[in-house]
Amino acid sequence: MAVYARWWQLETYLREVVYTELRAELGTRWTERIDPGVLSRAERDQVNAYMASADADEILAYADVGVLFELIEENWRLFEPILLPRPRWVGLTDVLKAIRHRSAHCRRPHADDLARLEQALRDLEPGAREFYRSYNHVSHRIGDRGGALVEGWVDRHHPDAARLLDHCDINYGITFQLGLTIRPSASGRSSSNSIAGTPGFIWEATWILAGDTAVRPAALWKSLDTGVRELLLHLLMDDSSVTATFAAVDGEREIADAIGRIFDAIVVTSRRPQPSDPMVPADADEWNARNLQVSASLPSKAQFNSTLAMFDPTDPAAFTIFSAD
Question: How far apart are CA 181 and CA 198, in angstroms?
Fold first, then answer.
């Protein structure tokens, strides 16, 4: 059971890494890099929609680990800063495939398989910290490089910004910030003229909730339309904030409009229930536990109190990603 648990930890992490880096690089076109056979398996599984799991709409959930390794190899430039040196990575994947074949066919593991997996996780730990640190290292010094998105939501020219920013701050205690993060593989790219269209750059829209408001992850996700969900890179939530991230290579005006629709959804779904409501949790811990429970049924791009949502880039040592020490 320990071998299965460690493998699940490893493969789940790699799927998140592959999705994030390809999505940040290519935007909504990221699936063009996916093997057509994977897409076909995902489409065929729609017949099982009546018993779908939370991963039913996740394309990479239908990719064998061999496909993940191939995607990493074919796009090595994107993954090099957060994995091992290439010769060591190639050697590691050869070992990991043997372990995966045994577990996939329900063969008993080798006596050393658990130790091998835990060593692999320890080796990947520094790169994993960089993966999460860089995602949460946000700059708000955008200047005039943001084009339509900055004009819309920083200069308040977008009609939704004019309608919502002051009103929600004053009446609901919801404040908004727009920031930028850069993937490690894109750190040397120039964005002196415009952030829009730059691969590896990520827009981060954050709402801080205070006063009589509370994050309700499942309700928020369900209230978003398909277009917004597809445009999102991630929707990250914790006890008092919501962060929506978007690949800068996608359309600025579409992102600006999506931010407005998410803003409206937060206002509608974050009203804290009245104390007289019997469904109101007794305390913050119970509220948090309920949100964690319902969030388990959301797709992987919608996360509540996850490592991606809560990693502190100013204190990376505070998080142990794999706990494989």
Answer: 12
3-state SS class at 242: strand
Q: How far is CA 100 from the centre of its chain?
A: 25
Torsion, Cα 27 28 30 31, to 10 degrees, reads 180
Beta strands in the chain (DSSP E): 174-182, 201-209, 234-238, 241-247, 302-304
Q: Which of 260, 277, 134, 127 is nearest to 205 (CA)?
A: 260
Q: What is the pLDDT of residues 143-154, one digit of tens each?
A: 666 688 999 999
Among residues 223, 134, 239, which one has the least CA distance to residue 186? 134
pLDDT digits (tens, 9 = 90+) for 46-55: 666 555 555 5
The order of strands in the sheet holding 241-247 is: 174-182, 201-209, 241-247, 234-238, 302-304
The helix (H) or strand (E) run that includes residue 93 is: helix 86-104
Residues 244 and 235: beta-carbon distance below 8 Å: yes
Q: Are 297 and 54 in contact (CB under 8 A)?
A: yes
Q: What's the pLDDT tens digit per position in 52-109?
A: 555 556 788 888 888 899 999 999 999 999 999 999 999 999 999 999 888 887 888 8
- pTM of structure: 0.90
Please say if the pLDDT value at position 316 is more than 90: no
Cβ 134 vs Cβ 312: under 8 Å = no
How many Å apart are CA 150 and CA 84, to the nearest integer? 37
Return d(Cα 187, Cα 137) in angstroms, integer. Answer: 12
Give pairs for 152-156: CB < 8 Å, separation 24+: 152/256, 152/259, 153/178, 153/205, 153/256, 153/259, 154/178
Taken as a whole, the chain contains a residue count of 325
List the one residue out of 11, 9, 13, 59 whose CA is nearest residue 33: 59
Classify strands 234-238 and 201-209 as parallel, antiparallel or unpaired.
unpaired
Determine phi and psi for 263, rounding to 5 degrees. -60, -50
